[in-house]
Amino acid sequence: MKEGTDVFIIKAVLPVAESFGFADEIRKRTSGLASPQLVFSHWEMISSDPFWVPTTEEEYLHFGEKADSENQARKYMNAVRKRKGLYVEEKIVEHAEKQRTLSRNK
To answer: Which ranges of the sequence are coiled-coil (predicted)?
Structure first.
């Protein structure tokens, strides 16, 4: 808190990919009372592999068959590919079930 004012200063590290739209979201959620000032700090490599899939029995037991926890590196890679108009491998329907209509077809 800044002395003599009602200003709070919060410092945090936020990935650049997550910062797009951050300022608008902060203003919306605080009704315009808060405004962030974003400053680039440093580069850091993402340690995960975007093409990783579980192969050993231990990995299947720990992560599950589909590795349901989201791979951040793959998420960022797919976002860049979408933005540039490149092919993105994604499933439209993952767990489909037959749907029933409310009215009967005659």
So the answer is: none
Q: What is the dihedral of CA 51, 53, 55, 61, to 10 degrees?
A: 150
**Alpha-carbon span 95 to 80, nearest angstrom:** 26
What is the pLDDT, as a whole number, of residue 25? 92
Residue with token string 């540039």: 84
Distance CA 65, CA 55 (A): 9
Run of H or E residues at 99 = none
Q: Are 43 and 27 in contact (CB under 8 A)?
A: no
Stated pTM of the model: 0.53
CA distance 95 to 31: 38
